[in-house]
Amino acid sequence: MLQYETVPVTPFQQNCSIVWCDETMQGAVIDPGGDLPVLEDACKQLGVTLEQIWITHAHIDHAGATADLAEKLNLPIIGPHPGDQFWIDGLPQAAANYRFPPSRPFTPTRWLHDGDTVTLGKHTLQVRHCPGHTPGHVVFYSPEIKRAFVGDVLFAGSIGRTDFPQGNHEDLINSITQRLWPMGDDTVFIPGHGPESTFGRERVSNPYVGGT
User: Fold this and answer.
1) Other C-beta atoms lying within 10 Å of the C-beta of residue 110
2) How confident is the model at residue 180 (pLDDT cuts 50, 70, 90)?
3) What are the domain boundaries of the chain?
4) In sequence order, which residues have a C-beta less than 8 Å from that of residue 175 and are 6 or more positions away?
5) 2-205 in CATH: which number?
6) What b/e string do you get for 49-84 counting C-beta neighbours within 10 Å, with b at 16 or more?
7) Chain centre to alpha carbon of residue 22
8) Closest of 37, 26, 27, 87 to residue 61, by C-alpha
9) Which of 67, 79, 93, 118 is most buried (CB neighbours < 10 A)?
């Protein structure tokens, strides 16, 4: 069975997720924005051996510690989509602007595109390109456990901001309705901030996309 634990990191309380195969205990960390000692301690407590880094998008609170973690543990960086290259390049300035610890750009080991898959131990997750919050945002979906790690595309009761450079509101709504809703009303999603919810609940009650 695929397992996960969410660990809030950075002053923005970004939901970094540790995902692992409970048979092999091989794990990936999704969006290591910062607080690496906290993440490493969580992995140790869980008995998880980190083997990959998965990135939904390259905003500082999601990707700020990626280069340091990859270098320290010699891990491949998977994602995001190439549309976020300029956000990766801008990580040092973003860290300074938001008074985060220094951050370095990185080169993904593998860029991701819509329809790709990622493999962890004996489990495979689907990748969907969901632009709008950022142009290169991706989502990781496990049909096996009906869980989707959606970064800042959708929140419980809200949606991602689109007022950042190259954000696009229409693209974001299309990403939610065309890429997320088909995963099923009973799919639980883990957002980049705040509590989990289900796509079915948001389809009914979310004021930004309810009824879509």
Assistant:
1) 12
2) very high
3) 2-205
4) 128, 129, 130, 131, 132, 137, 153
5) 3.60.15.10
6) ebbbbbbbbbbbbbbbbbbbbbeeeebebbbbbebb
7) 21
8) 87
9) 79
H and E: helices and strands count for the chain: 7, 13
**211 band by pLDDT with thresholds 50, 70 and 90:** confident
Residue 165 CB coordination number (10 Å): 9
| The pair of three-digit structure tokens given for residue 124, joined into one six-digit string | 């495979």
- 210 near 204, Cβ under 8 Å? yes
> Which two structure tokens, joined as six digits, stand for 22?
């409970």
Q: What's the predicted TM-score (pTM) here? A: 0.98
pLDDT tens-digit series, residues 71-123: 999 999 999 999 999 999 999 999 999 999 999 999 999 999 999 999 999 99
